[in-house]
Every structure is written in C-alpha cells, then in structure tokens.
C-alpha cells in the first residue's frame, strides 16, 4: 500500500463520498463546499491510501491559532482509514512539522479516539455546539 499527498486531487471523484460522509457525520464544522476551495488553493492537503485504487482519504490543513502554528486532520474516510493512521500517521506528523506546526489536532467521530490513542494522542475535550 502507498500513502501519498494527492496534490492535484486526482482521486477526488473516488474519495469525495467518503469525505462527505465524514463531514455529515462529524461535528458539522466542515463541509465539502468549504474544503474544495481549500484544496484547490493549496490551503489543505488530500492524502490517499492506495492499494491499486484508493482505500482511504484524509484532509489536513495548517492554521495559526493566536501565534501557535497547528495542523489538523479535518476529515477522513474510506475503508482503510484505520490502516492509514496506524501505519502512515508519522508521514502526516512529519509534514506538519515541516509546515512549522507544533501540534496536530484530530477532529472526527468519537470512535477515532481509540485509533489515535496508540500513537500518543489523547482525548482532551468533546466539542459541543448549538446553532442559535
């Protein structure tokens, strides 16, 4: 299996439903409509886990939070997400460091906490929101 940055979003048509599902069933902060321009403008990165064809996709971005540069895994989906994170998470961490990030945040379904925990991540909060 290979895990790589899809800089031209060539796999987008295949992975879009997975990312839409992640956005719909996540915390609702991100939508595909918000992510597409970020990917097109190079403000977010599409990562692909592939074994002849895409198995999983992860979208990451870097932001400055009050002077602290952080990276975030915004959305992830596909049948191979656990494998991608288990075997290839260090590639995203290395990328984040190269971007000057001092922290990497994961957002997603609560069940992903068990996937990230063996890699040194801890659940520190639950995001709650009410639309007014």
Note the topology.
Layout lengths: L1 E4 L6 H14 L6 H9 L3 E8 L1 E13 L2 E11 L2 H18 L4 E4 L6 H4 L16
Parallel strand pairs: 4-5
Antiparallel strand pairs: 1-2, 2-3, 3-4
Verbal overview:
The protein is α+β, with helices and mostly antiparallel strands and 132 residues long. Helices cover 34% and strands 30% of the residues. The protein is built from four helices and five strands. The protein has helices at residues 12-25, 32-40, 81-98, 113-116, and strands spanning 2-5, 44-51, 53-65, 68-78, 103-106. The protein has a five-stranded mixed β-sheet with strand order 1-2-3-4-5, sandwiched between helices. Strand 4 (68-78), helix 3 and strand 5 form a beta-alpha-beta unit. The protein is globular and about 40 Å long. The termini are far apart. The mean pLDDT is 87.
TL;DR of this structure?
With 132 residues, the chain is α+β, with helices and mostly antiparallel strands.
Radius of gyration: 14 Å
The share of residues in helices is 25-40%
- Quaternary structure: single chain
Q: Helix and strand string, N-terminal first? A: EHHEEEHEH
Which whole number gives the mean pLDDT? 87
Q: How many strands in all?
A: 5
**Could you give the distance between the termini?**
45 Å
Number of helices: 4
Structural class: alpha+beta
**How does the major sheet shape up?**
5 strands, mixed
Shape: globular
Query: Within the largest sheet, what's the order of strands?
Result: 1-2-3-4-5
Poorly predicted runs:
none
Percentage of β-strand residues: 25-35%
What characteristics describe this protein?
single chain; 132 residues; alpha+beta; 4 helices
